[in-house]
Amino acid sequence: MIPKNNSNVLKQLSFRLIVFSLFVILVSAACGKGSGGSGGGGPVTPPTPPPPTEDAIVFTYDIDPGSNIYAALGTTQEVKISVTSKMPTAGVITDIVVKKDSDGSTVSSSTLAASTMVPINGMISNLATNVVCTATITVKSATTATNTSTKTFKIARK
User: Fold this and answer.
1) How far apart are CA 50 and CA 53, in angstroms?
2) What is the CATH number of the domain that holds 68?
3) Exposed site from 3, 72, 116, 158, fewest CB < 10 Å?
4) Residue 102: CB partners within 8 Å, gap ≥ 6?
5) pLDDT on residue 135
6) Domain span holding position 19
7) Residue environment code for 46-57, b if the CB has 16+ CB neighbours within 10 A, otherwise e
8) Is 52 domain-assigned?
9) What is the pLDDT of residue 2?
């Protein structure tokens, strides 16, 4: 037979052991959920940093028709394009499209591969005598599709 004092001590120890066991079970269950944060459940992947932003593309070209139509001397016309803004690290892709003003048909079209060097040398071809055309030059970042700049001018073979 256990004396009464020892019986109370055993009841208190049993109660404390049960409370401690429940606490350990609850803490273990909470840490094992893995719902993010620092609660365990495996390694936490840090958020990926946003990509660096590029400066807006600004460019010039060496053909200057002023407010008139540029008079090409032959069936082809070279155009030099210079990016004056900070060059995107992967470079720029340049599109040159020339269409007849009379019917909108394409006279020449070229896409120049990504380049980080300036000037970028392009070529307008298939110009017919006294046929007024609109040349459109589009320079776009090789990595950021929304970073583009476009300019147009009139051109015709003399």
Assistant:
1) 9
2) 2.60.40
3) 3
4) 131, 132
5) 97
6) 1-43
7) eeeeeeeebeeb
8) no
9) 52
